[in-house]
Amino acid sequence: MSDFEIRQAQDRDIDNLCALIFEHGPNPWNHLPQDEVAAHLQGIAAGAVQALLAEREGELLGFVSYRQSRDFARYQPAPRRAQVHAYICEAVTHRDMAGQGLGSHLLRQVVSLLAEQGLHDIYIERHEENAASAGMMRKAGFVEIESYADPDRRPHGSGRTTVCCLRMPQDG
């Protein structure tokens, strides 16, 4: 896993991030509405979204995007319901990198960055039946906390979204 560089995405990377996710991300399990995903990634330019990417000799191999959120407050422990938490939005790798651990590696790196930012509750979602995403999330320490019917976003298979969470210890 050392033949590539990992770095924070910058404004100049947005077009390549969009190209990678729309070429290598689509499958029956992923909800990738083009306008919404493109707008999300444009959030990098505004500072509302961050992404960690892996590249080799200038070729984008994968990325994980994330942001601060309050969208998962209902899952937060009572004393922390009002606190900001993190949401990992997109995780994609180039098809040629599938199964090599790059996604899990990037996800673990993002978790470390979020901990450094003081965000100790991190949420991520996937299609209930997406085994590849489930494995990547498990390897990074995420646990399933709920699955619910979500036919608009998940028209295939069970039609359900699974919410996963990683809670890191807090000082004090």
TrEMBL record:
All copies of domain N-acetyltransferase, residue ranges: 4-171
The keyword Disulfide bond is annotated on this UniProt entry: no
Keyword set, alphabetical order: Acyltransferase, Transferase
Top-level taxon in the UniProt lineage: Bacteria
InterPro entries, alphabetized: Acyl_CoA_acyltransferase (IPR016181), Bact_Acetyltransf (IPR050832), GNAT_dom (IPR000182)
Keyword Cell membrane: no
Pfam families per UniProt: Acetyltransf_1
Record's protein name: GNAT family N-acetyltransferase
Organism: Pseudomonas aestuarii
